[in-house]
Write a structure and sequence with these properties.
By secondary structure, the protein is an alpha+beta fold. It contains two helices and six strands, in the order ββββαββα. The termini are far apart. The mean pLDDT is 84.
Length: 103
């Protein structure tokens, strides 16, 4: 006689005579498949950036990264623009602060 602890009522039940009111409620969103949420890498798409056809999401995204493009939904990707550092302004500000506080 094998028994198991019931999470529903907190008691012990025999495995072959499990009470109906202690049966767990099945989640309707959950599948009976062993791997219900599987995301495939295969895709057949033409890149909006370079116009080439790709069959792998990873290869498409690596081409985007190599070109410096950010993938945003289904909009046309734009290159990443980093602002240029104004070194001359920084140098002038450091000289001004140094002159102000060293005197």
């Amino acid at each position: 006689m094998r028994e198991r602890f019931c999470r529903i009522c907190g008691g012990w039940h025999q495995l072959d005579k499990w009470p109906h009111n202690c049966m767990p409620v099945k989640n309707l969103a959950q599948s009976d498949l062993p791997a219900p949420h599987f995301v495939s890498d295969s895709i057949d798409i033409q890149s909006m950036h370079d116009g080439q056809h790709y069959t792998s999401k990873a290869k498409l995204r690596s081409a985007y990264r190599a070109a410096g493009v950010v993938e945003i939904g289904n909009e046309k990707p734009q290159p990443i623009e980093t602002p240029k550092t104004d070194r001359k302004a920084i140098r002038n500000e450091l000289r001004r602060v140094h002159a102000e506080y060293s005197a």
